[in-house]
Design brief:
This protein has 2 domains: about 110 residues, Gyrase A, domain 2 (2-Layer Sandwich); about 110 residues, DNA-directed RNA polymerase, insert domain (RNA Polymerase Alpha Subunit, Chain A, domain 2, Beta Complex), CATH 2.170.120. Helices cover about 20% and strands about 35% of the residues. The longest helix is centred in the C-terminal third of the chain and has 22 residues. The chain is flat and about 75 Å long. A 4-stranded antiparallel sheet has the order 1-2-10-9.
Length: about 260
């Protein structure tokens, strides 16, 4: 198996990497493990003290649950695996509070966390809006969870496609006949199809089978993965944890077979 990083965004939250010498079963297992098994922190319970804002308690709670939170996997346990057996302790939950009566937007930046490592990733996200005389006060508890239980615990977006060998034949007659059938993004300044510009799954699909101008050959044992983290964990940690989760499941299965 060969793994190679192809692209990385400036903020480090989105990467594209190539995995060669594996089956589609392996590729899908990795994808599902990332989406469903990698734990992240999210607000699960909210105890309201005051709320006379325009939004009901349930709506505010829902918005709080969808706030991406920085996650520290080394400091917290899944509630079901904690020594407190899910009763709630400093090892399995982080307490986040808010108390405000300011007029205007209440944002994630107004939240106060007792653990400074568990904070909102996007402080500008709006929770609700207060008018003069309105108040919002609550205590929330954030816990580790997995995307297979609720999407608020999913660490990001992941998809893959077969690596493709792309051959371009800029025949003038074919260009004149089929040019309008290809996406404008794949043409260079001279009006020719540039193979290097056919670099996403969408553009590959759009160019495949149109004409002999572009010939696409899919590689069955080579996959390009695109992973975008919501920010709770870096992409590298997400992949490492996903692989660890798969290995733990295999170890558990092996133990049951003895």
């Amino acid at each position: 198996m060969e793994v190679r990083l192809l692209e990385k965004s400036k903020d480090g939250l989105k990467i594209k990497f190539l995995v060669k010498g594996v089956t589609d079963y392996f590729a899908n297992t990795l994808r599902r493990s990332i989406l469903e098994e990698v734990p992240t922190m999210a607000i699960e319970d909210v105890d309201f003290k005051k709320n006379n804002s325009i939004l009901y308690d349930e709506i505010v709670s829902h918005r709080l649950g969808l706030l991406p939170l920085k996650t520290n996997l080394k400091s917290y346990n899944l509630p079901a695996e904690c020594k407190c057996k899910g009763e709630g302790c400093a090892r399995c939950q982080a307490v986040i509070t808010l108390r405000t009566s300011k007029v205007g937007n209440v944002t994630a930046a107004d939240l106060k966390s007792k653990d400074t490592s568990i904070v909102p990733i996007y402080p500008e996200m709006i929770i609700t809006k207060l008018l003069k005389g309105q108040n919002l006060e609550f205590e929330a508890k954030a816990v580790l969870g997995k995307g297979k239980v609720h999407s608020k615990w999913s660490p990001g977006l992941i998809f893959y496609y077969n690596e493709a060998k792309i051959t371009v034949n800029n025949d003038d007659k074919l260009l004149e006949k089929f040019k309008e059938k290809y996406p404008p993004h794949v043409f260079d300044n001279n009006g020719k199809i540039d193979r290097n510009r056919i670099n996403t799954s969408e553009l590959i699909d759009a160019c495949e089978g149109v004409s002999r101008l572009v010939v696409v050959e899919r590689k069955e044992d080579s996959f390009v993965f695109v992973l975008e983290s919501w920010g709770q964990l870096p992409p590298k940690v997400i992949i490492q944890e996903a692989i660890s989760q798969v290995q733990n499941q295999l170890d558990e299965l092996a133990g049951l077979m003895k």
